[in-house]
Design a protein that fits this description.
single chain, 500 residues, mainly beta, 5-stranded antiparallel beta sheet, 36% strand, globular
């Protein structure tokens, strides 16, 4: 006969189960990684140069500090701060057949402006473990996700601190005023998981809201709220299916919008050796959720929508009837064919209405031209706004739509439907333009004009191989630039940035 079995508590059983599951996951993950690495080395050659490693996307190979930059025109005297922009800049000559634009080592670029002068330009790699090793430096301090410690998508300021941020599992990386890496951080050990590339500031509360996902978790995303002191005060789970890629969100006074759209995690892509594991999935139900900002994730109200994909919404707000309005750049599909970058062939500025009591999103096209990177006067966040500024994309059919931006900046007037333009001319390529307000509205002073400010962003001259930080007057963007700050090399197209 068997002896009497020892008593095992429920807590001990759960610990044993978690240990067993962890070992199984580790074994499976290790096997998948070996198979992926084997397949990655055997990928067929691309039919042409990888567009994200050549031309205007050719990576910079050194860090520079340039002082007292040349300026054409006059920088407004009241501009005092830094223009910051970040993007991928691979350090170690990646294999062009498997390199994906979204995965390059992060590099921050900055221009310091004060008293009508451009004092300096700097570019610095964000010190991931791989970058530190390649540069022969000690590993940067701080807490990080060991499988995802690269930050290359946005750069933000919170509580006087500057952070490079990324989605899908990576933690923020804090940098100093000269863009040197200070530490990897989970917001002083308050984050508890992945963050987002697009937190949105509520100017009335000082809190930032984000929808965050982790590539290794397929059934949950999180509403994360970052306090004005750069510490997380809320991390609320929201149930999803298939592991959707949710790049951005939008907020109203009551809700955070969850864009659960049909780009989802693909194990087949991982096994095939592709580093970016998300693909167009027409079987995934496209929907938009309204998660209450102070409620539970299971109270999210869902609205179905025809399949499409949104990287970037602009502003959102609630009407007196309780409807939610959000303006977005909607792509017909995304990551349907390309394995190296975004492959949308059609995008439009649309207005989506989520009517109280309805189950379907109402869509209306506002500007039927390919475009991306919508920005607005962010003091109007959660309030109705009139203007959206966006960057044109080519109308020709291309495989990688975002590998080459257009030469036109749009100002979309949502009240009249008028679209004004600034055309920078042939061989000029725009990045995202940021709106900088002359005055602080803070949702209170309605006498201040919404477009009373400036727009600034990088413009590449692909023939001269130089870049200008261009400053436009936002009220008349068709007028000549107020100033163009010359950077004597190509700053490769990146993702996002801000004026701080």
């Amino acid at each position: 006969m068997l002896g009497k079995l020892p008593y095992v508590s429920f807590r001990e059983l759960m610990i044993m189960r978690n240990l067993i599951e962890s070992k199984i996951r580790s074994a499976v993950t290790g096997g998948v990684e070996l198979l992926a690495a084997w397949n990655r080395k055997r990928m067929p050659a691309l039919p042409r140069e990888n567009p994200y490693l050549s031309g205007i996307h050719r990576p910079m190979n050194e860090e520079k500090t340039l002082l007292e930059l040349d300026v054409n025109g006059q920088i407004p005297e009241s501009l005092n701060g830094q223009y910051l922009r970040i993007g991928p800049n691979p350090l170690n000559h990646p294999d062009p057949n498997s390199y994906h634009w979204f995965l390059g080592d992060g590099m921050a670029h900055g221009v310091r402006i004060e008293g009508g002068k451009a004092l300096w330009y700097r570019n610095r790699w964000i010190r991931s473990n791989a970058v530190s090793k390649a540069l022969g430096e000690p590993t940067s301090p701080g807490s990080r996700n060991p499988r995802a410690d690269n930050a290359n998508t946005n750069i933000i300021r919170v509580d006087g601190r500057t952070f490079a941020v990324v989605e899908a599992g990576g933690f923020p990386v804090e940098v100093d005023s000269n863009l040197e890496t200070i530490q990897h951080t989970s917001f002083d050990n308050t984050l508890g998981g992945s963050f987002s590339a697009h937190p949105h500031l509520d100017p009335e509360t000082g809190q930032m809201h984000a929808i965050c996902y982790d590539a290794m978790v397929k059934d949950t995303v999180w509403h994360v709220v970052l306090g004005a002191d750069a510490k997380v005060v809320r991390r609320e789970p929201i149930a999803v299916k298939d592991g959707p890629s949710i790049h951005d969100c939008a907020i109203t006074k009551t809700y955070v919008l969850v864009f659960d759209l049909p780009v989802t995690f693909s194990m087949r892509s991982v096994i095939a050796g592709h580093g970016f594991p998300y693909k167009w999935n027409p079987k995934h139900q496209a929907r938009v959720g309204l998660c209450p900002r102070s409620g539970r994730g299971d109270q999210t109200i869902w609205f179905d929508i025809d399949p499409c994909y949104v990287f970037h919404p602009a502003n959102a707000y609630e009407t007196n009837k309780g409807d939610v309005i959000v303006d977005v750049i909607a792509h017909e599909t995304m990551f349907a064919t390309s394995t190296i970058g975004p492959d949308s062939r059609r995008s439009r500025l649309e207005r989506w209405t989520l009517k109280a009591g309805a189950s379907q999103v109402e869509r209306r096209v506002l500007h039927d031209h390919n475009q991306e990177f919508p920005r607005y006067n962010e003091s109007y966040t959660c309030h109705s706004n009139r203007y959206i500024y966006s960057v044109s994309l080519p109308m020709e059919t291309t495989t990688e739509m975002l590998s080459m931006s257009g030469s036109v900046l749009f100002k979309n007037d949502l009240q009249t439907g008028e679209v004004s333009e600034h055309d920078f001319g042939v061989n000029r390529h725009l990045g995202e333009f940021v709106f900088v307000s002359k005055t602080d509205r803070s949702g209170k002073n309605d006498k201040v004009l919404e477009d009373d400010g400036w727009l600034m962003g990088f413009v590449i001259d692909s023939v001269a191989e130089v870049t200008d930080l261009v400053i436009l007057g936002a009220q008349d963007i068709s007028a000549a630039p107020l100033a163009a700050i010359r950077i004597p090399h190509t700053v490769p197209p990146g993702f996002h940035g801000n004026w701080v």
